[in-house]
Design brief:
Radius of gyration: 21 Å
Number of strands: 0
Order of helices and strands: HHHHHHHHHHHH
Structural class: mainly alpha
Oligomer: single chain
Shape: elongated
Strand content: under 5%
Distance between the termini: 20 Å
């Protein structure tokens, strides 16, 4: 009996050892970066690959809204609520601090980089290449000089004209509205930075608490977030890849700072102290 208890205890220590967790998170990060990396290396992109009126496109739209303000806040709160329910209190506080810090950094970094690089979105480039009537034509170089309401109006007029031309790309109403609403710069992908930062930061503590199923669910969500941004025409592969890299840096920094300045007593996966 004592031998069995010792084996279980030893295995739990191995599975929650920081070195093991970091290797597992590194593998997760590599999987998240694989698709945009391959697309970039082969000079391909995912838009326009799927029918944007299809059930798949609509599902991807609803998924992508989980990273769009204000729904992204609800996503973070849901993760925190579930973590609070199943994690030891001390570990939850560390998770809460790390997620809060990482999200503040990711949000400010994304806004700063977008204004610096000023890269047009794939859907804008696509619309500018469609030979629309002069009054509805879009020029990526002048589009971003317009005020935000004027940008949305310009996208709406271009889409109206496009629909009369039997185009290759046809949009479901909610995706049509998404194109009108998302009129900022493309690089980097704020949705991807948000999602991958949340995935990596939360997963470190979830795995430490012995909650791999929760971490795997977050990983799947993060992977689909990056795919949705490319498939819906909102981001280029390089946007998603760089955002995945940046998210790993932000997440690592946030966890490091929390662990350094808020030392915890050593705990077992069930929350008991060693």
């Amino acid at each position: 009996m004592w031998h069995v208890a010792y084996v279980v205890y030893s295995e739990a220590n191995i599975l929650t050892h920081p070195a093991y967790l970091l290797r597992r998170l590194a593998l997760v990060w590599l999987l998240l970066a694989t698709i945009p990396s391959l697309l970039l290396l082969t000079q391909n992109q995912l838009f326009p690959l799927i029918d944007l009126q299809s059930p798949l496109a609509k599902a991807l739209y609803w998924l992508t809204t989980t990273g769009t303000a204000p729904y992204g806040v609800a996503t973070v709160l849901m993760v925190l609520a579930l973590a609070y329910r199943y994690m030891p209190k001390a570990l939850f506080i560390s998770l809460f601090l790390a997620i809060s810090l990482s999200q503040v950094i990711s949000l400010s970094t994304s806004h700063t980089l977008k204004a610096f690089f000023k890269e047009p979105r794939p859907n804008l480039v696509y619309l500018s290449d469609q030979g629309l009537p002069e009054e509805a034509q879009l020029n990526p170089q002048t589009f971003y000089q317009l005020a935000k309401p004027e940008r949305s109006q310009a996208i709406a007029e271009a889409l109206t004209e496009l629909h009369t031309m039997e185009p290759e790309v046809k949009l479901a109403p909610n995706i049509h509205q998404h194109w009108e609403d998302e009129i900022g710069y493309s690089f980097p992908s704020g949705h991807t930075i948000f999602a991958v930062t949340l995935v990596l930061t939360a997963s470190y503590y979830l795995l430490l608490a012995g909650l791999p199923l929760f971490a795997n669910a977050l990983f799947t969500w993060g992977l689909l977030m990056g795919l949705s941004r490319m498939l819906l025409g909102m981001h280029w592969p390089q946007d998603v890849l760089f955002s995945t890299v940046l998210a790993a840096i932000i997440s690592s920094l946030s966890v490091f700072l929390v662990e350094k300045f808020r030392p915890r007593s050593k705990e077992q996966p069930d929350g008991s102290k060693a």
